[in-house]
Amino acid sequence: MYPTDQSAGARDKGIEELRAGIDEIDAEIVRLLDRRARLARKIGEFKRSNGLEAYVPSRERAVLDRVLRLGEGDFPRRGLEAVFREIISSSISLEERMRVAYLGPETTFTHEAALRAFGASVELEPEATVSDVFARVERGEAQHGVVPLENSMEGAVTHTLDELMNSPLKICGEVYLPIMQNLLSREDSLEGVRVVCSHPMALAQAAPWLRRNLPAARLQEVESTGEAARMAASRPGFAAVGSALAAESYGLKVLARGIQDSRANATRFIVLGRRWAGRTGRDKTSVVFSVKDRPGVLRDALSAFAEEGINLTRIESRPSRKRAWTYVFFADFQGHPEEERVRRALEALEEHCPYVVLIGAYPEARDPEAL
């Protein structure tokens, strides 16, 4: 039975009334965003006149936390955070022309992490190496940098640790990015894929899936997942292992999603700046230290944190590069240097260590799965 013209007209009228309500709300949202932008410009003028930075991670965390507490209605919390992250990004761009260097090229996972940290309204500038990112920020050519620090499956990014040990820059933020590897190609099906290219780490993460589903394909290592996507877009028979962002940017088809070996695969990225972030109440601090050469000294050094009830979340050793078989340790712990218990722990650490340097304090990243 088909609807009558009268019933169809009533239905159309009903949906148009709902759409009119949405249009009215959209107009009010735009008016409010304009008001917010005017306030952001005034804040930018105040910051410039007082030598303050435009990007303040502790303030951003406070804004997002407050918004999520308010968001107990029908609008999804994950969407609410995404909307306000872009609002914050646009506001920062009104306060200052901000450049952020990141380990490129475009469409890599580091690019995606930079977008999550700063939004799309700041100037994101890719660099070829981790060292190049540090150098751009150190020279003042970019206000901040984004580099990978560790992967849940592959461990630490040693180039980043080595740069942190020798750079005056501080960690002022962190981003955890779940890594979903996808098979991207201009081909219509797996049957047309003869070569699969990507960064060695991405190929290793997808190796079991590739062996099962493309056993005859040749694997080719390239410098990045972004370069792999570029090659797949320009060469018939090629596929890339990479991100959905790369597929969108290069107009590739996603032939298979989530082909990485582990669903728990995630990478931690850090935001670099000239000073660490202010205290939020849910923070991490990163420190690098060396220990004296005597039995039990590392145990004694770490007991400084246990005695103050401070949770160590990570510890990593690296050769000191000053004398053979000597090491420095990188540690992250929950807390902020402005806390009295953290001050006491660091003072106790210095009793056992000839070298102690704080390399960052920053808001602890929110678990995206918890939203």
Topology:
Blueprint: H1 5-49, H2 57-70, H3 77-95, E1 99-103, H4 109-118, E2 123-127, H5 130-138, E3 144-151, E4 155-156, H6 158-166, E5 170-178, E6 182-185, E7 195-198, H7 200-213, E8 218-221, H8 225-234, E9 238-242, H9 244-250, E10 253-256, E11 266-273, E12 283-290, H10 297-307, E13 312-319, E14 327-334, H11 340-352, E15 355-363
Notes on the protein architecture:
The chain is α/β, with parallel strands linked by helices and 371 residues long. It folds into four domains: 18-93, Chorismate Mutase Domain, subunit A (Up-down Bundle), CATH 1.20.59.10; 98-179 and 266-270, Periplasmic binding protein-like II (D-Maltodextrin-Binding Protein, domain 2, 3-Layer(aba) Sandwich); 184-240 and 247-256, 3-Layer(aba) Sandwich (D-Maltodextrin-Binding Protein, domain 2); 277-370, ACT domain (Alpha-Beta Plaits, 2-Layer Sandwich), CATH 3.30.70. The chain is 43% helix and 25% strand. It has eleven helices and 15 strands. Strands 1, 2, 3, 4, 5 and 11 form a six-stranded mixed sheet that branches. It has a five-stranded mixed sheet with strand order 8-7-9-6-10, sandwiched between helices. The protein has a four-stranded antiparallel sheet with strand order 13-14-12-15, with helices on both faces. α2 (57-70) runs antiparallel to α3 and α10 packs antiparallel against α11 (340-352). The model has no long low-confidence stretch (mean pLDDT 87).
